[in-house]
UniProtKB/TrEMBL annotation:
It catalyses: NAD(+) + NADPH + H(+)(in) = NADH + NADP(+) + H(+)(out). This is NAD(P) transhydrogenase subunit alpha part 1. One of its GO terms (biological process) is NADPH regeneration. It comes from the Bacteria. Pfam families: AlaDh_PNT_C (PF01262), AlaDh_PNT_N (PF05222). It comes from Rhodococcus coprophilus. GO terms for molecular function: NADP binding; oxidoreductase activity; proton-translocating NAD(P)+ transhydrogenase activity. GO terms for cellular component: plasma membrane. InterPro entries: AlaDH/PNT_N, AlaDH/PNT_NAD(H)-bd, NAD(P)-bd_dom_sf. Residues 4-134 form the Alanine dehydrogenase/pyridine nucleotide transhydrogenase N-terminal domain. The gene is pntAa.
């Protein structure tokens, strides 16, 4: 069977779905890897590196399984054609997703977002691998925008107090943000609506902010808050946020708009020169004053809403994603080394969002 590694065309997307390092393990499993010319360039990987690793440069779109990062455009779906398999981020919970178009085109598509979050699937968990990148980079964005130091400095010219950093929403991205801010010398605090997160927050040297709201939902995710809970949360956060130099927000509820955690009034209450980095811009933002994709200054507070942060670190983001993709590919093989997904396996059953009539 052939695996096609295609060139990403989405604006700003610099990642690639398979890096050369992973190719030998796939060829050892009997796959032929075909790479579209220039597929790795965004991640600084030349075609020659793929060839050295045992891949060919050629028509990746005709492969049995096409692997991608960003959701395919209409033109890309037309190139895929009937009977192909596709693995990638397909945004299955977004209203404007391409799942219907993929089904109509006869493509058997696997959305990495739909992989269940069970221990066995951890190695394939692309949401986690990329959230880690985003959480790390969010802190660097904040530090870059900040007018203050993160660490405490004791110098002949005086002592500088450490920055206080609050992370709202402590899933994978939030936990990495706390750890990264700590490494930079910040004084860190974490908040989430899933009480089980408290121990994880403490384990990375941060304080736990308890607002008494428990909204643990299914599958390790949060549920949406009721109107009353939301009002209570916004009020409590408005009081808490005042004391922080940096606020990083990562709160998401699957399939829903991002929860509004930081009101305009809360921003107004912050000290001028403070920074908010909102990682939830893609679904509307956690801060009322966020403008997705932009950096704005409101009431003296800099509010950044970078989109697709993992694409800004394409080397390591691609490397981690490749591991996820390779693990899913291996799971699709039957005992003869042929891709023949066994849909009694919950990982494949849930990840597969369109079933083709033509694929066996
Ligand atoms: P996510 O991206 O869906 O959400 C980010 C965080 O926002 C979550 O912690 C969520 O509780 C929080 N949140 C949602 N609404 C909120 C609100 N109103 N106020 C404050 N916080 C709010 O989450 P994620 O990073 O994908 O991870 C969710 C959980 O799944 C984590 O606990 C993680 O450890 C677990 N997980 C398990 C596996 C596995 O077992 N395979 C893999 C990855 C993640």
């Amino acid at each position: 069977p052939t695996i096609g590694v295609v060139r990403e065309t989405h604006d700003g997307e610099r990642r690639v779905a398979l890096v050369p390092k992973i190719v030998p393990s796939l060829t050892a499993k009997g796959f032929d890897v075909v790479v579209e010319a220039g597929a790795g360039l965004g991640a600084l990987i030349p075609d020659a590196a793929y060839k050295e690793a045992g891949a060919q440069i050629g028509d990746a779109w005709s492969a049995d399984v096409v692997v991608k990062v960003a959701p395919p455009s209409d033109a890309e779906i037309a190139r895929l054609g009937s009977g192909r398999r596709l693995i990638g981020f397909l945004a299955p919970r977004n209203a404007d997703n391409q799942i219907g178009a993929l089904a109509a085109a006869g493509v058997e598509a696997y959305a990495v977002e739909a992989i269940p979050r069970i221990s066995r699937a951890q190695v394939m968990d692309a949401l986690s691998s990329q959230a880690n990148v985003a959480g790390y980079k969010a802190v660097l964005v904040a530090a870059n925008e900040s007018t203050r130091f993160f660490p405490m400095l004791t110098t002949a010219a005086g002592t500088v107090k450490p920055a206080t950093v609050l992370v709202l929403g402590v899933g994978v991205a939030g936990l990495q943000a706390l750890a990264t801010a700590k490494r930079l010398g910040g004084r860190t605090t974490g908040y989430d609506v899933r009480p089980e997160v408290a121990d994880q927050v403490r384990s990375v040297g941060a304080q736990w902010l308890d607002l008494g709201i428990d909204a643990a939902g299914e599958g390790g995710y949060a549920r949406e808050l009721s109107d009353d809970e939301r009002a209570q949360q916004q009020q409590a956060l408005e009081n808490a946020i005042k004391g922080f130099d940096v606020v990083i927000t990562t709160a998401l509820v699957p399939g829903r708009p991002a929860p509004r955690l930081v009101t305009a009034a809360a921003v107004e209450g912050m000290r001028p020169g403070s920074v908010i980095v909102d990682l939830a811009g893609e679904t509307g933002g956690n801060c009322e004053l966020t403008e997705p994709g932009k950096t704005v200054v409101k009431h003296g507070v800099t509010i950044c809403s970078p989109l697709n942060l993992p694409a800004t670190m394409p080397e390591h983001a691609s490397e981690l994603y490749s591991k996820n993709v390779a693990a899913l590919l291996e799971l699709m093989l039957d005992e003869n080394g042929t891709p023949a997904p066994d849909f009694s396996d919950e990982i494949l059953a849930e990840a597969c969002v369109t079933r083709s009539k033509e694929t066996p």
